Amino acid sequence: MKIKRGDMVVVVCGDDKSNSPRLVQAVLAGGSKVLVDGVNLIYKHVKRGHPKSPQGGRLRMEKPINSSNVMYYCNSCNKGVKVGLRYQEDGSKDRYCRSCEKTISQMSPARPRHAAANASR
Questions:
Q1: pTM, whole model, 2 decimals?
Q2: Which CATH code is given to the segment(s) 1-81?
Q3: If 91 and its partner were Cys, which of 22, 45, 106, 115 is the partner (CB 3.0–4.6 Å)?
């Protein structure tokens, strides 16, 4: 999964297509669902005595959306972009913006095995 918790994303499909960046709170179900701040809000009606709301009533909560409905928000491009994975010369694996080729974050530390494979290419 290329979207991680703490990333800023743009919702591209569904009810909330405002093109404003939002924070990913959690990645669920093996990466196929994401919980995005302020998106897919619902009301859950609960009876009295519920642990979250002892007096009962309506709880406002967020539900997860499919990860295919969001795109990573790149600060340098100021838009939603595709994210790619690549190996660096030292063998470390990085996430990068496919639009501006800027490195987003490091996925794994340097591995000599992958450094040798990149040197032969």
A1: 0.78
A2: 2.30.30.30
A3: 115
